[in-house]
């Protein structure tokens, strides 16, 4: 698939496997210093510190001591991310004035892993533009403890072999050291990445080990994330046909509940009847299948008493295409731990995705070759991700006008001019140097991520036919235009992952509402995007877009469970706290997401 670039005289590149080119692309390009940028950064820090102090005082006197404590933790995370250890050496602005990037992302990544087998793990820090939150000390402790547990329990270890034998017995056993969550692929790449992150967080919260069963279409996408051990499920796993079980197999949690093969009992230590009922429960099954996809067949998973039942099961098979992390916050067993892990709630997916999801060398080569050829020399990079849904589609002209109206409303894309503007204030928008890496100066690169070429061609033509205000030179680029989603093809998924990473290296983002592709790009970038509103009913939305208040992904199908079903919800969880941090998404009024 040829890569399109807007610069005159530029030669399109290809997303292809080329080890020699990948090595060459990893060299950091050099450029001039940026004293003005450093001065702006100093003033930005002063402003942020002032705002945080004011917010802390407001929280203490108006919202109370507990809210003030949360604000203080968020402030500490923000300030840690702004210190010298978290500044990045921007590949487009090298030179002695730039500071060295923290390759470990503030301790998020474990040191000492093999660089050759996964170049992206430690190199990505040089390409990210934003580091809004440092990981909390509790998250770092939890990650290091998880890595040690994973090494003990990974496939090939005696403990893993013992757990598999227990699985073959047909019953779970108490007191075993290693319990597992097995992630199963479902839906497109963005959905898979978000459900992987959700499954990993669930493993952190429940002291389990995450294993993934990857089909061929995902076999060369992600590096091994954990030091010294694999996360891949062995092919001889005793449960057969994992990819074909669907949303409602016999071993799903709800089915097992209905058949009385597993029972959730409310925890009440003061009630002898409750203790007797717990003692009389049938032995838990060897494994339970969790159907947490868009049909949400096992919604009782999000109840505390059901979590206690699942805690006795050695093996959980996770079938989900959702980012279900916000819905875990209302579970009493997880609420307090989530608050300690993520004092800033909107940092959850951002930190976990940067920890867990590292593209393989094949994908990283595509990313770095394209970035260094087309985007590296820009002083500003804007990612525009466009996704059309069958249930919310509008004509190309209408969507293009929606993008332009949104850009004018939120001042995202460089403004073009009219015939009456003063020539002294104008610059030729169509940049002749954009594809050969000599842009520099006041140069903006716009990256279009879409299955279709129409929007790229129209935006490119706009900047070719009109000058821009403020002497801004513009290059417009689109890595691929596959025309249709083909999740079953590995190379298609590799190119899609490369585009997600390129979006993640943007300074600013415009993403399509309800698109998991855009959610992952925003989380990796550490950016609150401008969200194009979905065209529900095939009507042009008004307003055309909204600025996200939180960069967290939306859980598009949250469980609809009430106090009658989750019997402990009202008594244990602070409902006001949940309502303050889990709210309706900006782009979908039936979804929920984390807010601060």
From TrEMBL:
Top EC category: transferase
Transmembrane region(s): 46-64
Keyword Cell wall biogenesis/degradation: yes
UniProt EC number: 2.4.1.-
Source superkingdom: Eukaryota
Pfam families: XG_FTase (PF03254)
BP-aspect Gene Ontology terms: cell wall biogenesis; cell wall organization; xyloglucan biosynthetic process
Keywords from the named record: Cell wall biogenesis/degradation, Glycoprotein, Glycosyltransferase, Golgi apparatus, Membrane, Transferase, Transmembrane, Transmembrane helix
Molecular function GO terms recorded: galactoside 2-alpha-L-fucosyltransferase activity
Location within or outside the cell: Golgi apparatus, Golgi stack membrane
Membrane topology: Single-pass type II membrane protein
Region of interest: Disordered: 18-37
A GO cellular component entry from the record: Golgi cisterna membrane
Function field: May be involved in cell wall biosynthesis.
Protein family according to the UniProt entry: Belongs to the glycosyltransferase 37 family.
Protein name: Fucosyltransferase
């Amino acid at each position: 698939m040829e890569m399109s670039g807007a610069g005159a005289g530029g030669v399109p590149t290809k997303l292809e496997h080329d080890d020699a080119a990948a090595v060459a692309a990893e060299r950091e390009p050099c450029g001039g210093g940026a004293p003005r940028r450093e001065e702006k950064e100093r003033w930005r820090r002063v402003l942020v510190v002032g705002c945080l102090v004011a917010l802390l005082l407001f929280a203490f006197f108006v919202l109370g001591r507990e809210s003030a404590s949360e604000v203080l933790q968020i402030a500490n995370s923000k300030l840690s991310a702004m210190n010298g250890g978290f500044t990045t050496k921007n590949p487009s602005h090298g030179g002695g004035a730039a500071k060295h990037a923290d390759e470990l992302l503030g301790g998020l990544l474990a040191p000492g892993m093999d660089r050759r087998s996964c170049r992206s793990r430690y190199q990505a820090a040089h390409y990210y533009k934003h580091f809004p939150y440092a990981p909390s000390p509790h998250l770092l402790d939890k990650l290091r403890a998880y890595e040690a547990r994973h090494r003990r329990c990974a496939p090939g270890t005696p403990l893993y072999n013992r757990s598999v034998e227990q699985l073959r017995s047909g019953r779970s056993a108490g007191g075993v050291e290693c319990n597992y969550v097995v992630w199963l692929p479902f839906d497109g790449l963005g959905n898979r990445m978000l459900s992987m992150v959700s499954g990993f967080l669930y493993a952190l919260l429940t002291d389990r080990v995450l294993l993934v069963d990857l089909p061929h279409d995902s076999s060369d996408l992600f590096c091994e994330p954990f030091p010294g051990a694999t996360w891949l499920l062995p092919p001889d796993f005793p449960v057969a046909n994992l990819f074909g079980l669907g949303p409602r197999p016999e071993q799903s949690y709800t089915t097992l509940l209905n058949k009385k093969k597993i029972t959730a009992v409310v925890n009440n230590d003061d009630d002898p009847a409750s203790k007797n009922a717990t003692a009389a429960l049938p032995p838990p099954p060897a494994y339970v299948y969790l159907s947490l996809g868009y049909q949400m067949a096992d919604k009782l998973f999000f109840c505390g008493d059901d979590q206690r039942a699942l805690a006795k099961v050695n093996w959980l098979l996770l079938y989900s295409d959702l980012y279900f992390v916000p819905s875990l916050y209302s579970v009493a067993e997880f609420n307090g731990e989530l608050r300690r892990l993520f004092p800033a709630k909107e940092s959850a997916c951002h930190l976990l995705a940067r920890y867990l999801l590292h593209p393989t060398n094949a994908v990283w080569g595509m990313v770095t070759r394209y970035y260094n050829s087309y985007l590296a020399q820009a002083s500003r990079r804007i990612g525009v991700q466009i996704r059309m849904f069958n249930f919310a589609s509008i004509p190309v002209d209408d969507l293009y006008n929606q993008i332009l109206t949104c850009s004018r409303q939120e001042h995202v894309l460089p403004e073009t001019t009219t015939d009456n503007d003063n020539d002294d204030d104008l610059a030729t928008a169509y940049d002749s140097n954009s594809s050969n890496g000599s842009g520099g100066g006041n140069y903006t690169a716009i990256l279009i991520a879409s299955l279709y070429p129409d929007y790229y061609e129209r935006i490119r033509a706009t900047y070719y036919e009109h000058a821009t205000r403020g002497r801004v030179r513009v290059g417009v680029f689109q890595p691929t235009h596959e025309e249709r989603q083909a999740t079953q093809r590995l190379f298609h998924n590799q190119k899609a992952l490369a585009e997600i990473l390129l979006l993640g290296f943007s300074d600013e983002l415009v993403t399509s509402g309800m698109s998991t592709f855009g959610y992952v790009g925003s989380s990796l970038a550490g950016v609150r995007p401008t969200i194009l509103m979905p065209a529900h009913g095939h009507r042009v939305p008004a307003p055309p877009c909204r600025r996200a208040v939180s960069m967290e992904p939306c859980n598009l199908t949250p469980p609809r469970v009430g106090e009658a079903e989750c019997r402990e919800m009202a008594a244990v969880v602070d409902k006001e706290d949940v309502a303050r941090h889990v709210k309706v998404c900006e782009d979908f009024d039936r979804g929920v997401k984390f807010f601060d």
